[in-house]
């Protein structure tokens, strides 16, 4: 990824992802190890189907992050709709341990199609999860500690939770 592309991403983020402003100063200085190049190009029509479903899924959440991510996802889908037969590279730029930027680049044109700010759900504490996603009725929680169990079974968690208590 070139310095110009990183600057273009920084410019895009400054306009679209306001909660990353504190991190934007360092985007142009990202170390090569923090940038994961795409493994192979993906057909845009496949990505369009995936990200339409994700945009629909984001309606479940009532948080600023979810609203912003849905708007960015719908903007990306709008670009994908106009070029469904094209191929797309997806770069990952790690901002920190839990947050990344997914950078969508036209494979042939090398143009920036969009950027999504994503958070690794596995790295979130229950409090962080509520901050990013808000409380949702469908979130199961542990009756022992109250942890939200979106990505694991209650039996698996309770085994770990109970073992921590003894």
Textual characterization of the structure:
- The protein folds into 2 domains: 3-123, no CATH class; 137-165, no CATH class.
- 42% of the residues lie in helices and 17% in strands.
- It contains 6 helices and 5 strands.
- Strands 1, 2, 3, 4 and 5 form a 5-stranded antiparallel β-sheet that branches.
- It starts with a helix and ends with a helix.
Q: Which features does this protein show?
A:
166 residues; alpha+beta; 42% helix
Helix/strand-derived category reads alpha+beta
> Termini separation (Å)?
50 Å
What number of structural domains do the residues give?
2
Query: Beta-sheet strand percentage?
Result: 15-25%
Uncertain segments = 16-28, 162-166
Helix content: 40-55%
Q: Secondary-structure element sequence?
A: HHEEHHEEEHH
Q: How many helices?
A: 6
Average the pLDDT over all residues and give the rounded result.
Answer: 74
């Amino acid at each position: 990824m070139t310095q110009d592309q990183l600057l273009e991403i920084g410019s895009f983020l400054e306009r679209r992802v306001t909660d990353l402003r504190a991190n934007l100063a360092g985007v142009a200085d990202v170390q090569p190890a923090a940038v994961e190049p795409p493994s192979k190009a993906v057909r845009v029509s496949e990505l369009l189907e995936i990200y339409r479903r994700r945009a629909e899924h984001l309606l479940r959440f009532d948080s600023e992050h979810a609203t912003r991510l849905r708007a960015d996802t719908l903007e990306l889908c709008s670009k994908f709709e106009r070029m469904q037969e094209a191929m797309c590279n997806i770069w990952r730029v790690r901002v920190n341990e839990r947050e990344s930027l997914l950078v969508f680049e036209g494979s042939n044109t090398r143009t920036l199609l969009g950027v999504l700010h994503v958070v690794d759900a596995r790295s979130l504490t229950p409090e962080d999860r509520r901050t990013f996603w808000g409380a949702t009725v469908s979130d199961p929680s542990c009756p022992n500690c109250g942890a939200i169990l979106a990505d694991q079974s209650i039996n698996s968690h309770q085994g770990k939770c109970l073992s921590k208590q003894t």
